[in-house]
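Run log, item B.
One chain of 218 residues. Sequence copied directly from the ordering sheet:
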Amino acid sequence: MADEGAVLDALRDAILAGEFAAGQRLVEVDLCERFGCSRFAVRAAIPVLASEGLVDVQRHRGARVRVIPVSEAIEITEVRRLLEGLTAARAAERVTAAQAAELADIVHEMRAAVEAAELLRYSDSNARLHARIRSIAAHDTATRMIERLRAQLVRHQFTLALIPGRPAVSLAQHERIVAAIVARDPDAAEAAMRDHITSVIESLGSLEQSASNQSARR
């Protein structure tokens, strides 16, 4: 039988992968069957996921996958902009030749994914690049905060990748970030990262406006 830690990780991964819809009720008996665990393990996982912003728990109504509106996603991304700018600058100060080559390889993969119109592949490489920049920066506090914030935005990030032309725009921004890190220019790296995240915020804003216009027409 799966232990508490394994159940927590498996349920978190399933939510982040979109295997549970936003707003979907998390039924204990179904989760126990799926993960081969006890109700105690499920009950231990739910409060942790609630603290991470992935689950809503309502008295007498149980737990549901948290619905994060675009307006909140924008606020979260505004905070990410500050933190990711910091880690980009820190990475530029610490990057080694081997790490610089690795970043360049990931950007190459991203470019190939854009050219092949492989959105999932691009999204995965995008996430890997940001994670590698954070690991090079080695700023543990910023990394913990970014990863927690980012977990709440996974669904919105995939939606952004589906916007026509967005991956190509994003690719150019990531190329600029990596170029600054490889050049070991902290100020340029921070500015490039902040500009990239600002672009994400603007794209989220366009999604919010589009949703508002659709509601007005109904």
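Observations after the first pass:
- Residues 70-217 form a domain with the Four Helix Bundle (Hemerythrin (Met), subunit A) fold (CATH 1.20.120.530).
- The first strand starts at residue 25 and ends at 26.
Flagged for discussion on Thursday.
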